[in-house]
Design goal:
This protein is α/β, with parallel strands linked by helices. It is 48% helix and 15% strand. Strands 2-1-3-4-5 form a five-stranded mixed beta sheet, with helices on both faces. Helix 6 crosses helix 7.
Amino acid sequence: MSKDVLQQLLEGNRRYAAEGLTLDASAHRRTEVTAGQQPCAIILGCVDSRVPPELIFDQGLGELFVIRTAGQVLDKAALGSLEFGVAELHIPLLVVLGHEHCGAVKAAIETLEQHEAAEADIAYLVEALTPAVRAGEKAGGDVWDSAVRAQIMMLVEELKRSPVLSAAVEAGKLKIVGAWYSLETGLVEITVA
């Protein structure tokens, strides 16, 4: 089932990129979802205003369960929300969605390069993104892009260690994938399957 859901999301993304959105946000749909929610996928994405999951996957009201933090940084509230979606709503697919030109990752790179301390709780984000930045530096090439891709991969692996999520994966009830979104083309590429 998660394979079908992933295919549905990728088809929606192709519609979005081709400017053919079909998502349903009508008054009728609002009424339909008042009885409860049955989203088909969880998206752990970035807070970046240029990356709205419902639009880029062409999914209407009630179809996605979305958790967004800067750079997809995972904290207890975000992880608990993901686990709730799987344990209580039985959502079969979790997508970690990173994106091109992520400002949170860039800020972490710059802070680390300048050996500065980030302000207030932004320091938490920098600390959480540091392993991905270091992996991006080791990968060579474009550090920014490599760090975003490393963050996606590391999060997929971290999520698979959650007792709730790993039990669902082992039971065949959940698939966790990583994806990268191009701001320029509007297309999503699966990077970790």
